[in-house]
Amino acid sequence: MHTMPDLDVGGGQVVALNAIREGDHESFDYDVLAVRTKPDDMVAEFDAAGVRPVVFDWNCTGRPKQVGELVKLFRARRVDLVHVHGLVERPAVLAAAFIARVPVVGHIHSEWVHLGPKFPPDASAVQRARARVLGWGRDALEHRVVRWYVADSTAAADLLRPYVRAPIDTMIQSMPAAEMARARAAHDDERWRAQLQLGPGPVAINVSRCVPGKGQDRLIRALASVRARVPDAQGTGGEQGCRDSNGTPQVVVPSGEGTHEAASL
């Protein structure tokens, strides 16, 4: 069973969808759980892959009864393995998996360490002590039930590895090879470059939400290095492209319907 916060179009949801599409359906049954009813843009795609998602309406998390709901679900569906993708549902999923005695695969989608105590810089001594106790308990539970981690990148795996006890492997790719081959065959390079006002040289693209942990900071440093070595290097993205005070391209978000506003990094 793949678990995720919602069925919005996102990295974890697409990884789960491709795993189900390309999975061995003769040997395994697949389930999907989302703990929020909205957004639900990918319901039809999971349906087409042969899986009707189970959706809980959790307006907030951290309630004990939610763990009970998950235990009942795991037992009713006879779940043998849980693959947790999101941080929203992770605490309840891990607690339920412990009670139901179901092993867990933890997926790491970004360069952010979710383990350890979490508190704001201005937290009081009492708040810090409480965060440390809760963090210790949460981490102990994760060490107990997570048998294997899958990371989207070697950087994410290397960042988390000192904090966990289970092995971590890195995904090679989340898009099926056949789908990549179809996309490559349909790609019109000349038209694509003209549309984005690109020249004939190499192109580096970052495709992700502009939020902390997605690696755009590394892209910024890389682009600064490129500009130093290739003075006429250009960025694109129209009005949504972010540049620093020296004009170095920082974040490129192609203009068009459905894109996020460029973040100020």
Give an overview in words.
There is one protein chain. A 7-stranded parallel β-sheet has the order 3-2-1-4-5-6-7, with helices on both faces. The C terminus is likely disordered. It is α/β, with parallel strands linked by helices. The longest helix has 21 residues. The radius of gyration is 21 Å and the shape is globular. The chain is built from 9 helices and 9 strands. It has 2 domains: 169 residues, Glycogen Phosphorylase B (Rossmann fold, 3-Layer(aba) Sandwich), CATH 3.40.50; 64 residues, no CATH class.
Keywords, separated by commas or semicolons:
disordered C terminus, 265 residues, globular, single chain, seven-stranded parallel beta sheet, 11% strand
Round the Cα radius of gyration to an integer and report it. Answer: 21 Å
Q: In CATH terms, what is the architecture of the largest domain?
A: 3-Layer(aba) Sandwich
Estimate nothing, just give the exact number of structural domains: 2
Looking at the structure, what is the overall shape? globular
Helix tally? Answer: 9
Strand order of the largest sheet: 3-2-1-4-5-6-7
Task: Determine the mean pLDDT.
Answer: 83
Order of helices and strands: EHEHEHEHEHEHEHHHEE
Task: Kindly provide the name of the CATH class of the largest domain.
Answer: Alpha Beta
Give the distance, in angstroms, between the N- and C-terminal Cα atoms. Answer: 36 Å
Flag low-confidence runs.
237-265
CATH superfamily of the largest domain: Glycogen Phosphorylase B
Structural class computed from helices and strand pairing = alpha/beta
The CATH topology of the largest domain turns out to be Rossmann fold
Number of strands: 9
